[in-house]
Amino acid sequence: MSGRDTDGGAVIRRTADGSGADGADDRDGRDTAGGVEVRDLEVVLETRTVLSGVGLRVRRGGWLAVIGANGAGKSTLLKAVAGVLPHSGEVLIDGTPVRTLKPRERARLLAYAPQAPALPGDMTVFDYALLGRTPYIPYLGREGRRDREVTASVLERLDLSALARRPLGRLSGGERQRVVLARALVQQAPVLLLDEPTTALDLGHQQQVLELVDRLRLADGLTVVTTLHDLGVAGQYADMMTLVAGGRVAASGSPAEVLTGELIAEHFDAHVRVETDPSGRPQVHLERPGRPGRRGRPDREDRPDREDRPDREDRPAREGRPAREGRPDTPSGSGARTEDPCR
Ligand SMILES: Nc1ncnc2c1ncn2[C@@H]1O[C@H](COP(=O)(O)OP(=O)(O)OP(=O)(O)O)[C@@H](O)[C@H]1O
C-alpha cells in the first residue's frame, strides 16, 4: 500500500495490518534468540579512527535504523556488528561476544547483506541464494531438499523465481540487490543486518522488501538492524533509531525523537518538514528553501491563525491519534509542523 503525499511525492506507508504474520514463513525448529548490544565500539581503518565510543542496544524483535550523512560510519558500524571488521569494545549477539563465535556459529546467529558485494558473474541466482544455507550443510555434504525449498520460497517472495537460472552478471542493479537480500534471508538467522537494502529498488520493490522483513520480524522475533538513507522509510519501519555523525552516536531514540527538523538540519544540512502520520510515525518531507511549505498553499505567515479557523472545533480527532489537546506542542524553532497533511 503506497500513497501520495500532498506535495505530490510518493510516500511509503506501512501496511495497516501490524500483525503481519501471514503464517507463510518457512522457518522450522529455529531458535529465535537474539538481541544485539554494542558497547564502547571503536574501529580503526588503516590509521584512521572511524568509529569511537559507539553504543547501542536492540531488543529481540526490534528494528533499529542507523542513519547519518555520507561517511558518518554507518556501514562500518554494521560490518563491525557482523564481525567482519576488527574492532575494540564489545559486540554481543544474544549476550555472546561476536568475536568469540566461529564463522559457522556466527552465520547461524546473524545474516549480513552488504551494500554492494562483489558477485560472481557466472553463478546463477538460485545457487547464489543457496549459499545462505551453508551454515546448515554438513562439511563435505550437499544441500538437502529442505535447503532448496527454503531458497525457492525466498526467491518467490522477492519476485526472483523467474530469474532463478539467470547468471548474476546478467541482472539489473535492483535485481542484484534483491538477490543479495535473498541470500541473507535464506540464512534464517535471528539477527538480520542490512546495509542500505533498498537504494537500487523501485518503489514497489522497496515496499515489498521492507514489508517482508517486517513480517519476518513480527512473526519470528527477528532482530533487524539496517542502515537507511531514506529517512521517510526509516521513520515508517524502524522502532528505534541511532543517528551517527563523525563516527559517534549523535542521537538515539524512537523515530519521533530522532527525526526532528533540528537534528536533520544539523547533521544532514538539509531543510525538511516533519509531520506526524495518523499512526504517530514521523514523515520527513524535503523542502526547497524559499518556497511555500506546501504546494498550492500560502506560507504559514500568510495563513489565518490556527486558533481563528472556524472549522477547527468541529473536526473529530483522527483515529489512532490523540486529540490536539493531548499532543505535545511543536518545539519552538524545530521547523516541524503538526498540521494534518490530508487537510
Ligand atoms: N578502508 C578504509 N580505510 C580508511 N578509511 C575508510 C576505509 N573505509 C571507509 N573509510 C572511511 O570511514 C568513514 C566511514 O565510512 P562508512 O562507509 O562507514 O560511511 P557511511 O556512513 O556508511 O557512508 P555512506 O552513507 O556514504 O555509505 C568514511 O570517512 C570513509 O571514507
From TrEMBL:
Q: Which PROSITE patterns match?
A: ABC_TRANSPORTER_1, ABC_TRANSPORTER_2
Q: Does the keyword Translocase apply?
A: yes
**UniProt domain ABC transporter: residue ranges:** 36-271
**Where are the stretches annotated Disordered?**
1-33, 274-343
Q: Which Pfam families match?
A: ABC_tran
Biased amino acid composition, Basic and acidic residues: 24-33, 274-328
Q: Which UniProt keywords apply?
A: ATP-binding, Nucleotide-binding, Translocase, Transport
Q: Which InterPro entries match?
A: AAA+_ATPase (IPR003593), ABC_transporter-like_ATP-bd (IPR003439), ABC_transporter-like_CS (IPR017871), P-loop_NTPase (IPR027417)
Q: What is this protein called?
A: ABC transporter domain-containing protein
Q: Which organism is it from?
A: Streptosporangium pseudovulgare
